[in-house]
Amino acid sequence: MSYLSYTRESDNFMEVLLRDPKRYLPIVEFVDNVTQGLSELGWAECELIMAEVSRVNRSAFCLGIRQGVTQALKADESSLRRDRLAPVLAFALKVNRDASMITQRDVQDVLDAGWGEQTVEDVVGLVAIQRLYNMIATGLGFRALPEAVFAEMGEATVEQRGYLPTFRAFMEQTGP
User: What residues contact 169, with CB distance under 8 A and at least 6 apart?
Assistant: First the structure.
C-alpha cells in the first residue's frame, strides 16, 4: 500500500502523476522523446533497459509497467538484438550504479558494438529518468500491482503510441 492517503484506495502511482500534471508532464514527455525513435534504440529496447534499471533499483511498480509495455510491443528475444544490446545494458547498469565511474572505455564498448554516440546519450537519459521514476514510486510506497493490470496499462500505452498520449488521456478522464 502506498504511503499517501489520497492513493491508498487504488494504490496506483498514476494518481500521483495526475494529481499534479504540470509537475510530472515534463518527465513523461522526456520518456517519449527518447523511446519513440529519436535514437538507434527501438522502443522495446528502451523498455528493456528501463526494466533492468527498475529491477536493480527494486522498484516493483516501475518494473511491472516496463514489462507490461514490452509484452504489449510483442518483443521477443530475437527482436531485441540481445547480443548487440549486452554492452548497452552493461553501460546502463554501470551508469545506474555510479555514473561517476563511467570511463571512455565504457563508452567505447557501446560504440564498438555498433551503436552511435547518440545511443550513449540516450541510455544515460533513460537511466536518469528511470531512476527518478523508481525513487518517486518506491519512495512513496508503490508496490507491484497484479500482472493483468500492468498488461492492460502496457496495451493502452502501445495503442496510444506512447506514454504522453496515455497520460493526456488519463488527464482528460480525471478532469482538472
Answer: 156, 160
* DSSP element (H, E) containing 122: helix 117-139
Residue 103: partners with Cβ closer than 8 Å, 6 or more residues away: none
Instruction: State the Cα–Cα distance between residues 60 and 33, nearest whole angstrom.
Output: 24
Domains for the chain: give ranges and CATH numbers.
Answer: 5-171 (1.20.1290.10)
Query: CA 13 from chain center: how many Å?
Result: 14
| CA 6 – CA 26 distance, rounded (Å) | 23
Per-residue pLDDT of the chain (176 residues; tens, 9 = 90+): 788 887 767 677 888 888 888 999 999 999 999 888 767 898 989 999 999 999 999 999 999 999 999 999 987 655 556 678 999 999 999 999 999 999 999 999 999 999 999 999 999 999 999 999 999 999 999 988 899 999 999 999 999 999 999 889 888 887 65
